[in-house]
Amino acid sequence: MTSVSLLGPGDEPIVLGVTTPAAPVRVPTTRRYLMCPPEYFTVEYAINPWMDPTRPIDTGLAVEQWNALKETYERLGHRVELIEPVPGLPDMVFSANSGTVVDGRVLGSRFRAEQRGPEADHFRRWFLANGYKSVVMPERTNEAEGDFTWTGKYLLAGTGFRTDPLAHSEAQEVLGVPVISLQLVDPRYYHLDVALFVLTDDLIAYYPEAFSPGTREVLRRLFPDAVIATAEDAACLGLNAVSDGRNVILPVEATALADQLTRRGFDPVFVDISELRKSGGGPKCCTMELRN
């Protein structure tokens, strides 16, 4: 904010006007996503603090919410590819955890929880069946875009709860991109994609308290203009969001975050993920980006 002033009688300043810098013009880019219908979604085990097998689950509602998310992407001009769900794999809906794709190269996943282990091979076979030539399955535990976030310049790589820190160097070798390690410290935010998301190549939003002190300093240095989320926004998985450079798909409860995004020139697009959140997932968890 700037003002123009002159000196009046007695050298008292006279303010002539106040201007507020206009928000940047944000330009969306068309994306391609891989999603998995939640036909078999339920919560029958607990592998994160959000999951409680004793709580009732409405699979039909989860399907409705997922369909609304898919239709939102398509309405915004994005292309959605589908992988068939598999009985007995209730978390397969969270496709982001099963592959990281950069410039057509695919690094598959290796899950820490044995319940999700079989998902990785179903996605591997989907990639091969759909023309991907460079598909590498990891030796180290990595939960793909759950902990790997591509900015367009760097691969931000989370660790602390799921992904093995040695998987970061493996990702650099397979994908051929610079990797920056980030330490997660709050078990509620066990994956990077529930604590941080990319808005544009040089701008992120994140919740500082989810990270170690050293990681916070790294993020401040790399992204000094970052959007800082509130505790309330983080607690509703508001940072499990998806941006196309202008439109930001995020949970309906993340209102303070949406206000900040609007002031930065973005268009918040709300979706209801209340049923899927019972398993610790949101819009991003349901969405693997295919960067070809």
Automatic annotation (TrEMBL):
One of its GO terms (molecular function) is transferase activity. It comes from the Bacteria. One of its GO terms (biological process) is L-arginine deiminase pathway. Keywords: Transferase. It holds the Pfam family DDAH_eukar. The keyword Nuclease does not apply. PANTHER family: ARGININE DEIMINASE (PTHR47271). This is Amidinotransferase. It comes from Saccharothrix espanaensis (strain ATCC 51144 / DSM 44229 / JCM 9112 / NBRC 15066 / NRRL 15764).
